[in-house]
């Protein structure tokens, strides 16, 4: 069930108007309207307010990147040698969501080669697929990542990543 459906269903079950829900939860009316319309992008704080007001709970879990998939289809470095890598081609959406999971995990990665490979894959996405890059990234975050690595090596690795990406994107 979609978040918009959950909010609308719970609000109606409690016989609340959108205005009454806004007052009870402390969430603005336009935000509630956007969420119920499926166009909102709520913060965790907004979700917690709605949980309390409507009597439901949401579970938030952190996803771990699928390193084997990333190695096969995007990263220019070898990460997992003994693990079986699925021969199935992932959808572009799945591949890009896994790349962003890896980007978000960058701060926790201790292996410099892996971190550099993720940065190079991100650089390749920006270089070869700028429209997709702009859809998934804010430029500031990517620029901070790019400045941490040698430009020459980054370009070389991004070519490898670009060739891998071309098979899927």
How do the strands and helices of this protein lay out in sequence?
Blueprint: H1 3-13, H2 18-25, H3 29-36, H4 44-54, H5 67-73, H6 92-104, H7 112-128, H8 130-136, H9 139-146, H10 151-166
Helix pairs in contact: 5-6, 7-8, 7-10
How many structural domains does the protein architecture include?
2
Content of β-strand: under 5%
Helicity range of the residues?
Answer: 55-70%
- Number of helices in the DSSP assignment: 10
**Averaged pLDDT:** 86
| Main sheet makeup | none
Structural category: mainly alpha
Number of strands: 0
Low-confidence stretches: none
Explained architecture:
It is a single chain. This protein is an all-alpha fold and 169 residues long. The protein has helices at residues 3-13, 18-25, 29-36, 44-54, 67-73, 92-104, 112-128, 130-136, 139-146, 151-166. It is elongated, with a radius of gyration of 20 Å. It folds into two domains: 3-54, lambda repressor-like DNA-binding domains (434 Repressor (Amino-terminal Domain), Orthogonal Bundle), CATH 1.10.260.40; 67-166, no CATH class. It has ten helices and no strands.
Descriptive tags:
169 residues; mainly alpha; 10 helices; 63% helix
TL;DR?
This protein has 169 residues and is mostly helical. It has helices at residues 3-13, 18-25, 29-36, 44-54, 67-73, 92-104, 112-128, 130-136, 139-146, 151-166.
């Amino acid at each position: 069930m979609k978040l918009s459906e959950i909010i609308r269903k719970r609000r109606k079950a409690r016989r609340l108007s959108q205005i009454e829900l806004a007052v009870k939860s402390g969430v603005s009316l336009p935000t509630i309207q956007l969420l119920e319309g499926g166009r909102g992008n709520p913060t965790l704080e907004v979700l917690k307010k709605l949980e309390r007001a409507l009597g439901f709970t949401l579970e938030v879990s952190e996803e771990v990147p699928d390193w084997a998939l990333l190695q096969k289809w995007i990263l220019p470095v070898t990460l997992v040698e003994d693990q079986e890598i699925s021969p199935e081609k992932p959808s572009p959406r799945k591949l890009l969501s896994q790349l962003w999971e890896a980007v978000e995990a960058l701060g926790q990665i201790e292996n410099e080669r892996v971190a550099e490979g993720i940065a190079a894959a991100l650089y390749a996405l920006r270089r070869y697929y700028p429209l997709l890059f702009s859809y998934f990234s804010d430029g500031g975050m990517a620029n901070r990542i790019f400045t941490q690595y040698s430009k020459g090596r980054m370009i070389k690795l991004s070519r490898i990543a670009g060739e891998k990406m071309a098979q899927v994107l």
